[in-house]
Write a structure and sequence with these properties.
Length: 327
């Protein structure tokens, strides 16, 4: 495409062979209706199925399609970051490949962007096809995150959003390894607006965010934007220490000034175990922060690109990235 790219659609994917054809069809239809030039950037995050090969074939005859094929699975947030690094559009849209977030909402986002909003994010008012446990844990996560952090991160929102080129460029300047993109978007600021929608049931395949990955995402979100857990540890530690000291004074009083036998050693053991458990928990919280400092200090790249496919005349990876950074 020799014309200026107006919109970049970033589509991270991990083992989405069952749905990727429908994803491509629907996004292609929606973007074609805008009448403006666009690019579809599929980011293969180490898939073991054939979704990357399918997108590669699309790129041979559809010049709007690009494929960033990462060398292994680096994680959903890193795949989004890779897409932003290569995006050339004046506006950048992030949408997952599983079609739970409807591509048909993109024109409404574009309309709000043209009204002057620099970030337009989709807010879920209903989550179809998910278990009660998943809905409850997701709701709890967003509210704990809002309480724990010092910035306003909208609740019930995912990564489905449109960002202005200026916002995307600012995000590319943020180097942290344990990324929480929706939090970073809130951190950079700018004019933001929500669009409400009902999240659809997954079209095919399995969720890529089981409980273990949701827990990691939660820890990344909280530790990236707040040190309140460390402050909480100090407060609770002081309260427990004060309680223990008062109980010790009570025991000494019984032993020195009364004839009553000092009883309750079983309860003392229970209290000791509780204190030890609390200390280990606080060490675990401290370890999460230290581990992230260690990750940052290693200075490794966020991701490695194995192959890059584009409908444009092929350029080297360095040329593509240089063109993106100099835009």
């Amino acid at each position: 495409m020799s014309v200026q790219v107006r919109y970049s659609i970033i589509i991270p994917m991990f083992n989405e062979e069952a749905v990727i054809q429908e994803t491509y069809r629907r996004i292609k239809k929606v973007m074609g209706s805008t009448g403006e030039p666009y690019e579809l950037i599929f980011v293969n995050d180490g898939s073991t199925d054939n979704c990357a090969q399918m997108v590669e074939e699309y790129s041979y005859w559809d010049e709007s399609v690009k494929l960033i094929d990462l060398s292994r699975n680096f994680g959903h947030q890193i795949a989004i970051t890779a897409g932003m690094d290569y995006a050339l559009g004046d506006a950048v849209v992030i949408i997952d490949a599983d079609l739970q977030d409807p591509p048909e909402l993109i024109p409404e986002m574009i309309a709000e962007w043209k009204q002057g909003y620099q970030v337009v994010y989709a807010k879920r008012i209903k989550r179809n096809g998910e278990t009660l446990f998943k809905k409850w844990t997701a709701s709890l996560f967003y509210r704990v995150l809002r309480y724990s952090t010092d910035i306003s991160i909208p609740v019930d929102t995912g990564d489905f959003r449109l960002m202005d080129r200026r916002v995307c460029d600012e995000l590319k300047r943020l180097p942290e390894k344990n990324r929480f993109v929706r939090g970073l978007v809130s951190w950079v600021g700018f004019r933001q607006k929500a669009i409400e929608y009902e999240r659809e049931e997954r079209q095919a395949g399995e969720t890529k965010y089981p409980f273990r990955r949701m827990l990691k995402l939660s820890l990344d979100g909280i530790t990236s934007f707040s040190y309140k857990p460390l402050k909480l540890a100090g407060v609770l530690g002081a309260l427990l220490s004060a309680s223990g000291f008062l109980y010790l004074m009570y025991v000494l009083y019984l032993a020195l000034f009364t004839d009553a036998a000092v009883k309750g050693w079983a309860s003392m053991i229970g209290i000791t175990l509780t204190f030890n458990g609390f200390v280990l928990l606080m060490l675990g919280i401290l370890g999460e922060y230290v581990g992230r400092i260690y990750d940052e200090s290693k200075g490794r790249p966020l991701y490695i690109v194995q192959e890059f496919y584009s409908g444009r005349p092929q350029q080297s990876l360095q040329e593509q990235r240089t063109a993106s950074l100099n835009k």
